[in-house]
Amino acid sequence: MKPDFDLNVVLSRIEEAIEPYPKAAMFELYERGYSSLFEQLISCIISIRTLDETTIPVSLRLFAVARTPAEFLILTPERLTELLHGCTYPDQKAYTMLGIARRVMEEFSGQLPTNFEQLTSFKGVGPKCANLALGVATGQAAISVDVHVHRVVNRWGYVQTRQPEQTLKVLEQQVPQPLWTDINRLLMPFGKHICTGNLPHCSTCPVLAWCEQVGVTKHR
Ligand code: SF4
């Protein structure tokens, strides 16, 4: 018999369990001082289909050269692509970033809008990056659902969804707003290191008592 699912207790156990592991890239970069909405958005674009182990050094290399929309516009597409070397689709991401920088300067006086609808109106900015950047940089209540968050909450049986977009909608209804940013901060490293895609570490998992282990056929 499982105890009633208590999200506060589950998240506090996860907070302790992930302590030995590196923070998720965006949170790590925030702590290193790359905390503006523009920097967070740029790093999130770098992180698309790219491991944190690459996202962090590529972001640091780029920010050593340019940190603001005005500084990005000094770069040629070729130079920006070169700086993005190592992440996936560097030329496509360079094109996206320069488009964002140009529009910020032309339409928003150099400051990205802190509003989800306006932010997602930028070409190449989806709900995942908009919410993550807004949550980390501005402290706004926002949930970003990546593959880890999507997998973990489905395994718990907390949601029953097929796509991350559906997961976002359900989590926005079920999770109290003060916990929205914690969902990303905690479940990204938890999904990466403990509730892994293959062979999750269920036998030592601190939230096994609350987890339905939906779809888990083999585990460590
Ligand atoms: S018990 Fe297993 S499936 Fe459930 S959260 Fe822990 S590692 Fe993931």
UniProtKB/TrEMBL annotation:
<dbReference type="InterPro" id="IPR003265">
    <property type="entry name" value="HhH-GPD_domain"/>
</dbReference>
<keyword id="KW-0255">Endonuclease</keyword>
<keyword id="KW-0326">Glycosidase</keyword>
<protein>
    <submittedName>
        <fullName>Endonuclease III</fullName>
    </submittedName>
</protein>
<feature type="domain" description="HhH-GPD">
    <location>
        <begin position="46"/>
        <end position="193"/>
    </location>
</feature>
<keyword id="KW-0540">Nuclease</keyword>
<keyword id="KW-0234">DNA repair</keyword>
<keyword id="KW-0378">Hydrolase</keyword>
<dbReference type="InterPro" id="IPR023170">
    <property type="entry name" value="HhH_base_excis_C"/>
</dbReference>
<dbReference type="GO" id="GO:0004519">
    <property type="term" value="F:endonuclease activity"/>
</dbReference>
<dbReference type="Pfam" id="PF00730">
    <property type="entry name" value="HhH-GPD"/>
</dbReference>
<dbReference type="InterPro" id="IPR011257">
    <property type="entry name" value="DNA_glycosylase"/>
</dbReference>
<keyword id="KW-0227">DNA damage</keyword>
<keyword id="KW-0456">Lyase</keyword>
